[in-house]
Amino acid sequence: MWRFLHILATGVVIAAAAYVYSVKYQAIYASEQILKTRHLINKERDAINLLRAEYAHLVRPDRLQTLADKLLEMQPLALNQIVKVEDLPAPPPKVDSIGRKLESMGLGQSATPSAGVTGATPAVR
């Protein structure tokens, strides 16, 4: 009986050692993955900073002005191009093409309640 208990205890100790060994290597693998992920994050942050520096270089006002002068062939603003708001034409009236199409089909009166009718859905607070 004692011999069987000693063999059983030895087996349990070996099984526990194997389990601890596997947990140890799982933890090591997880820490390596975390380290790789941190390196990738730092690499991407460096790439983002590089792109921001390139963008800042590309949108410099003096560089854009030189390119605009060279490529756009713009002329200086003339005084007769400046108008007052009152001189602008009125916008065209809004046309409800869907409403006109419904009226032409004989469906002009809709069954949906308007906002001013009592019994309409109350406003959400």
Verbal overview:
The chain is mainly alpha-helical. The chain is about 60% helix and about 0% strand. The protein is built from 3 helices and no strands. The longest helix has about 55 residues, at about 1-60. The mean pLDDT is about 85.
Radius of gyration: 39 Å
Q: Strand fraction band?
A: under 5%
Q: Number of helical segments? A: 3
Largest sheet: none
Rounded mean pLDDT score: 87
CA(first)-CA(last) distance: 79 Å
Q: Unreliable runs, pLDDT <50, ≥5 residues?
A: none
Q: Give the overall shape.
A: elongated
How many strand units?
0
Q: Helicity level, as a percent range? A: 55-70%
Q: Label the structural class.
A: mainly alpha
Order of helices and strands: HHH
Key phrases:
mainly alpha, 0% strand
Short summary:
With 125 residues, the protein is an all-alpha fold. The protein is built from 3 helices and no strands.
Task: Indicate the topology.
Elements: H1 2-58, H2 61-71, H3 97-104
